[in-house]
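User: When convenient, might I ask for sequence and structure tokens for a protein?

AI:
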Amino acid sequence: MRKLGTLVTSLGLLALGAAFPSTAQAAPQQGYYCDQTWSQTGRDGYVRAWSGFDCTGTLLGAAYDNDLNWGDQGGAFRNQDAYEVKSVMNNGYVGGRDVVAFYEIHNSGASYVCLSPYELYADDITDNHFTSGAPVNHIAFHRWMTAADCAGNSWLT
């Protein structure tokens, strides 16, 4: 009798599901939008940054060269970009200076995080720490360097 009750209940729930189909869709996986952007841009020699997680929100800038002050009026990154950044992408060419180092303090090389060209992007920089141990909640400037220039605890994920 218990099996019959379970069967009837299951059939009833199945009928309800058919009568009222769900319109909810699963949210995209983490990295989905960064993956989409990567497939559109590929290796074009730039570093990019967005105001939203997962390469969403406003594209704050794209720089081919170093930008030594994300808070000034010049370069690809300007004004408040330093404090709005949430995700970054390394579209640099592989070989030589192909790693992007993002620095915590302007005019200082003391505290940084590195993004490998093989990692492609960091869809949430805020879950990382600078080499000083401080959380990555802003970027003062960036420059291109080699992997050998980066400390073992400096890699963005």
